[in-house]
Amino acid sequence: MPWIVIVVIGTGIVTALWTLRRRALLVTVDGLSMEPTLLHGQRVLVWRTRRRLVRVGRLAVLAPPESAARRRPLLVKRLVALPGEPVPDEFAAAPGLLDGRVPADGLFVVGDNRAGSSDSRDLGPFPLAGLVGVVWFRVGVDPAIAPVQRRDADRHAG
């Protein structure tokens, strides 16, 4: 009987590790655009997703739009507006919007360090197809692993 318990527990651990490997990604922050939330060189655990976990205020990891693709392979930005949603008035002059709304295939994202970020304010909405996932945890922060806090105020504040 004890060997059955060991097999069941072992199978559970293997399944959990396999799922984590397929669904999670460890990303190192490169640059200052997300300060003070994320610092240059800090690592974050990203949960790969398409739309299920995508909410305004969350941090997203995205492939850059074609116009910025040569600069960085992946970008970490804060979601400000989802497909079809209006953007806050302060961003209404951004390129690529349709009557102040994000196109059906786009995401409006900005860096927390507005002065040091190249984002949807300059490049227009990022392609929804380029969404890799959402930031789940910061790694290497006191304490060693810390959840990323959602900033609801970012939906309307600058």
Question: What characteristic shape results from the CA principal axes?
Answer: elongated
Strand content is 25-35%
Instruction: Please state the structural category.
Output: alpha+beta
Q: Give the tally of structural domains.
A: 1
The level-1 CATH class: Mainly Beta
Largest beta-sheet details: 8 strands, antiparallel
What is the H/E string?
Answer: HEEEEEHEEE
Report helical residue fraction.
10-25%
Task: Give the CA-CA distance, first to last residue.
Answer: 61 Å
Detail the poorly predicted runs. Answer: 152-158
CATH fold label: Umud Fragment, subunit A
CATH homologous superfamily label: Umud Fragment, subunit A
Mean pLDDT: 82
The Rg value, from CA coordinates, equals 18 Å
Discrete helix count:
2
Subcellular location: Cell membrane
EC number: 3.4.21.89
Keywords: Hydrolase, Protease
Catalytic activity: Cleavage of hydrophobic, N-terminal signal or leader sequences from secreted and periplasmic proteins
Please give a structural write-up.
It is a single chain. The chain is of the alpha+beta class and 158 residues long. The protein has one domain (24-155): Umud Fragment, subunit A (Ribbon), CATH 2.10.109. 16% of the residues lie in helices and 26% in strands. It has two helices and eight strands, in the order H-E-E-E-E-E-H-E-E-E. The protein has helices at residues 2-23, 120-123; strands spanning 24-28, 43-48, 59-62, 75-81, 106-110, 126-127, 131-139, 145-147. Strands 1, 2, 3, 4, 5, 6, 7 and 8 form an eight-stranded antiparallel β-sheet that branches. The chain starts with a helix and ends in an 11-residue tail after the last strand. Pfam families: Peptidase_S26 (PF10502). One of its GO terms (cellular component) is plasma membrane. This is signal peptidase I.
